[in-house]
From TrEMBL:
GO terms for cellular component: cytosol. It comes from Microlunatus antarcticus. This is NAD(P)(+) transhydrogenase (Si-specific). One of its GO terms (molecular function) is dihydrolipoyl dehydrogenase (NADH) activity. It is found in: Cytoplasm. Residues 348-455 form the Pyridine nucleotide-disulphide oxidoreductase dimerisation domain. The keyword Nucleotide-binding applies.
Length: 481
């Protein structure tokens, strides 16, 4: 029996996943709408997450003059007194422009943007509370994509007031650059903001209940970052849980389970996020979220209700804007029977700390546990002409190469432009390239990309030394019998 729906596809949420799902369906000639609040066009990514934090990072680097201190001295600054207004001016400009781009893309593809909040009435029907209007709108859709993203997790023992005690979405609302700060949670978001405020001169204490931060990264890279952050007077409290946070007009006291107490002007709690699904009335659609508000999907991003898909952070790992975009594209393609290839398993991770970290592929620890023979090549920025020019003496690039096949198994980078440089290694690895490709390839001089060449030659020299000695030992064996 044929059904007639108001739209072919309704997308709940206009973040990276929702945008790309909507645009893909529109390219296939489908009637599409996107539902989201006027103030959240672009989702958390544009308004409170990825774009704001990365823009803030660039503003901090520029205004503090940090990148130039190797060349002009430790006291070098572009601006002596940096205010929140200085930081927010660039932030609002970028957010405004990015929102305009998204609106233009949706409009160009004839996608209706409905301002409001959606909830399910049944598996094919949505009720939309329209913003600025007392009424609501009901619409039906053949396919629905849930792309509502996440919100910060708020533990019951922490009283958030939006002034002294903030979550990671509220941190940009502080009135002034604090003199001291406690950051709870040493995940990606916590470490990124901690490094930014430390660069601004804030005395930061990072509290983490685990014994290590960023434990999915290469330990050598993480140690380099910790050394750099300590150099900016950051303190670490690993293996510590927060028992309570008290605030007053003058500041905050964070009490740890071990009994330690930390005084600071501001506390930023960044211990995880949860799916933004509370207001969706999922049960009316036959769906159920887990205890973290996330939805389970199959390899095609379908939920347990076949015509309802979910993409982006709301489905959990890897919860990255870059992967969310492709998830949305693939979900819409599958929903409307458009042939499409699956995502490459090899994906880069970028962490926008100061300095930044990026990697692709395996770590030394993973390969050791898998009993894979490998060799490591290191290149340090201070050995590169470009590293001297830009004043980066601490950056490094690590190549991990299979000892027998010479295949590149991992690329790990710390320092300037790490998140850009990683794509060179990713491309070579994705094509099954070996370290010999880099050894035999000419790279522009002077560039940071030369780090690949230096690291590749380092690996090749080590492998050659092993091969030579192995050959000598094999040749000597008959005479020893």
């Amino acid at each position: 029996m044929e059904h007639t729906y108001d739209v072919d596809l309704a997308v709940i949420g206009s973040g990276p996943g929702g945008q790309k799902a909507a645009i893909m369906a529109a390219k296939l000639g489908k009637k599409v709408c996107v539902i989201d609040s006027k103030s959240m066009v672009g989702g958390v990514c544009v308004n409170t997450g990825t774009i704001p934090s990365k823009t803030l990072r660039e503003a901090v680097l520029y205004l503090t003059g940090m990148d130039m201190r190797e060349l002009y001295g430790a006291s070098y600054r572009v601006k002596e007194e940096i205010t929140i207004s200085d930081l927010l001016a660039r932030l609002q400009h970028v957010i405004g422009r990015e929102t305009e781009v998204i609106r233009a893309q949706l409009q160009r593809n004839h996608i209706e943007l409905i301002p409001g909040t959606a909830s399910f009435l049944d598996p094919h029907t949505l009720s939309v509370d329209l913003e600025g209007q007392p009424s609501h709108r009901t619409l039906t859709a053949g396919v629905i994509v849930i792309a509502t993203g996440t919100v910060p997790a708020r533990p019951a023992n922490v009283k958030f007031d939006g002034v002294r005690v903030l979550d990671s979405d509220q941190i940009l609302a502080v009135d002034e650059v604090p003199g001291s700060m406690v950051v709870v949670g040493a995940g990606v978001i916590g470490v990124e903001y901690a490094s930014m405020f430390a660069a601004l001169g804030t005395r930061v204490t990072l509290v983490e209940k685990r014994d290590q931060m960023l434990d999915f990264c290469d330990p050598e890279i993480v140690e380099s970052l910790k050394f750099h952050l300590r150099d900016h007077t950051m303190s670490f409290r690993f293996g510590e849980e927060v028992a309570s946070v008290e605030s007053s007009g003058g500041g905050t006291i964070t009490t740890l389970a071990s009994g330690k107490r930390i005084a600071a002007e501001v506390v930023m709690h960044s211990a995880g996020r949860q799916g933004n699904t509370t207001a969706l009335d999922l049960e009316r659609a036959g769906l159920e979220a887990d205890k973290r508000g996330r939805l389970s999907v199959n390899e095609k991003y379908q939920t347990t209700v076949p015509h309802i898909y979910a993409v982006g952070d709301v489905i959990g790992f890897p919860a990255l804007a870059a992967t969310s975009m492709d998830q949305g594209r693939l979900a819409a393609s599958h929903a409307f029977d458009e042939p499409v290839r699956d995502l490459q398993a090899l994906q880069p991770i970028g962490i926008y700390t100061i300095p930044e970290i990026s990697y692709c592929g395996k770590t030394e620890g993973e390969l050791t546990r898998e009993s894979v023979p490998f060799e490591v090549g290191i290149s340090r920025y201070r050995e590169l002409a470009r590293g001297q020019i830009i004043g980066d003496s601490y950056g490094m690039l690590k190549l991990i190469v299979h000892a027998d096949t010479r295949e590149i198994l991992g690329v790990h980078i710390f320092g300037t432009n790490a998140t850009e440089l990683v794509h060179i290694g990713q491309a070579i690895m994705g094509c099954g390239g070996t370290v010999d490709y880099l050894v035999d390839t000419v790279l522009n001089y002077p560039t940071l990309s030369e780090a690949y060449k230096v690291a590749a030659l380092d690996v090749a020299n080590k492998l050659r030394a092993v091969a030579r000695l192995t050959s000598q030992m094999a040749a000597a064996e008959p005479s020893l019998r």
